[in-house]
Amino acid sequence: MSEPETTYVGKACAYITRETGELLVFEGPGHEGLQIPKGTLEGDESPREGLFREVREESGLATLQGAEHLTTDIWVRRPSPPKYYVRHFFHATVHEPRDSWTHTVRDGGDEHGSQFEFSWIEPTGDREFALDLDDYVGLLPSATAGPDRPVASD
Hints:
mainly beta, three-stranded antiparallel β-sheet, 1 helix, 7 strands, 36% strand, globular
């Protein structure tokens, strides 16, 4: 009997904050809790290209500032047959005055017609996200700074 083939799937994951330091999250159909915009890399798409495409498709936001790569990890989606996500986490900022909105996906893909309910939260690291997407919230500048969380000085 042969070993099952291991599958690796590239993902782009977006921690998007606005001027107040709040983090963009969504809930949508078929999701098990809070999530951030993210998705599978297509073809020979780079993680950065996937980041911009996924954010636009899932949230409708088309303009991000300062997209910075934070980290890459390998996350176990399922142990058998082995499937791993190679997750590329980015941080970007956006000027967005809306406190919440609903976005309907119109890209023609698997999520076409799905609606996502977006809102902003404080990135304190004390809330669990679906799919362990909160693993790197602590790397955000706004996770350690703010009115009640002063920035460390040199």
